[in-house]
Amino acid sequence: MIEERGGFYDRDPRHYDLRVAVLYPSPYLVSVNSLGHQLLYYSLNEIEGVMAERFVLDFKGSVESGRDLNEFDVAVATLHFEGQYPLLLKMIEGFKGQVIVGGPAVTANPIPIMGSVDAVGVGDSEEIIPKVISSMTEGELSSPGLINSRDPSPTELIRAKKLKVLKRQILVTKSGKPLNPFLIEVSRGCNWACKFCLIGWHWHPLQEADPWELKEALYSAKDQGFKEVYVIGSDIMEAKSLKKVLELVRELDMKASVPSLRADLIDEDFLDLLISVGEKRVTVAPETGSSRMKILISKPIDNDDILWLAEAVKDKGFSSMKLYFMVGLPNERDEDVLESAKLASKVNELIKTKVTVSIFVPKAGTPFELEPLARPEVVARRGKIFEKEFRGKINLMHPGRAYLQTVFSVGSWEIANLLKRAYKRPYNKGAYQKEAKKLGINLDSLVYEKREEAPWRDLVLVSPSQRVRREINF
Ligand code: SF4
Question: Which of 192, 276, 358, 443 is the most exposed place for a label (fewest CB within 10 A)?
Answer without folding.
Answer: 276
